[in-house]
Amino acid sequence: MTKKSRFARVLDTIEVVGNRLPHPATLFFMMAALVALLSWWASAAGLQALHPATGEIIKVRNLLDADGIRWIYTNVEHNFVEFPPLGLVLVIMIGIGVAEGSGLFTVLVRQLVLGAPKKLITASIIVAGIFSHLASEVGYVILIPLGAMIFHALGRHPMAGFAAAFAGVSAGFGSNFLIGSVDPILAGLSTSAANIIDPEMNINPMVNYFFMVASAIMVVFVGTWITEKIVEPRLGTYHGTEKPLEIEQITSKEKKGLKWAGWGTLIFMAAMAWTIIPENGLLRDPETGGILRSPFFSGIVVGLLLLFFVPGMIYGIIVGTIKSDKDVIKHMTHSMKGLGGYIVLVFFAAQFIYWFNYSNLGLVVAIDGAEFLKNIGFTGIPLIIAFVILAAFLNMFMGSASAKWAIMAPVFIPMFMLLGYHPGLTQAAFRIGDSVTNVITPMMSYFALIVTYAQKYDEKNGIGTIISLMIPYTVIFLIVWAVMITIWLLLGIPVGFDGPVHMP
């Protein structure tokens, strides 16, 4: 009891500190202002660096001199409109809006969970959590209480099902079997950061795919073991007043909708395969005939849009949630309505990123930082693991993954590129750190809602209860994931498509 109270005080401190942070948009504005001040100071101090690739002397540009102010004034709109993640997210959310609005996402999660054998129910809930990250609100809002309900209906402790679902949904950020909306966001930010060193480099949304799939398999097995061997035994038998509920089964109409949506998805995937598998495929590189740097991958966001749109459209027509073009547009519009806060955030994030790039501060810091790390011998596996831990720590205080990556990418991607590591590896390491602490940080957007869900089974359940319940997942996932990325480094396995561990 004493340990729990002490731990709760630590969590309270984290919550207070986190709540005192300004809104992410305000934070980006403040950081942009700080970049301007630092550029003035660094320029006056004559800070510079020798570019290792070109031999060019890189000097810091002053954002507060006449040229700098003119550049800021004339590029505000450009910075916003040309910010890579903005268009990517808006495009893919059109497809996700149809799939989510039609009810396809919800019924897929229910089917995946309810169709599994009882012995595999824990694993199936975690798998559903991973898949639900394609539309994170579905996972946090629907799957976590559903996981608790299923366990309760099976005579198991509901909080164990709650924990398994929560772990799966949160771990889905760094592990998945499919590409989701977060991948284009991160890839866009990584591209902007990589362009500091190599203006021609483009990071595609599938750059972490191989590592993601392997991580997803790990999360399922390790998450199941944690739930059944550590969390559930600790909880014991449920003695609360909440009565088990009947789990709503998939209706015949929903089954029909899933069937036809599945056939539609297969036909669509076959059509896409036809454009790239044959040597004369339409979406292969027209000059080289290659695949990795082909129109297929450069336009993968359109493919992802259609991957969600096609089955969502078919399902909606079959079950009746889409009766006309007006319903389709309504679902698209609804998904866009939820992006208002993101668009405002992007406006300020874009200014920060482009100001940072224009000033050359990131380039100078990256070159000098890389040289320093080389001189002290801090490279390789210790460096990558230290970066994972740093990302995990920052996640405790700042909930938005894209906001954190927008801050970290311009510094660490160029630095690691100069040390010989591909941006895909750096991004994968960030995703590990940002996944493992999602379940224990009160700064996570849905944490308050999750506490409310837990109080359904015991009104005394609070933040400390949730954190103590989820800490085993954080610790063990971090250890196993660190081992995984170490193996990737030692063997030189690509982390994804066009995502080698080391710079070419």
From TrEMBL:
Q: Name one GO biological process term.
A: p-aminobenzoyl-glutamate transmembrane transport
MF terms from GO for this chain are:
secondary active p-aminobenzoyl-glutamate transmembrane transporter activity
Q: Which Pfam families match?
A: ABG_transport
Report the InterPro entries cross-referenced here: AbgT (IPR004697)
Q: Which keywords, in A-to-Z order, does the entry hold?
A: Membrane, Transmembrane, Transmembrane helix
Q: Which residues form a coiled coil?
A: none
Q: Which residues cross the membrane?
A: 21-42, 86-109, 116-132, 138-155, 162-186, 206-226, 260-277, 297-318, 339-356, 376-398, 405-423, 435-454, 466-491
Supply the name of the protein. Answer: p-aminobenzoyl-glutamate transport protein
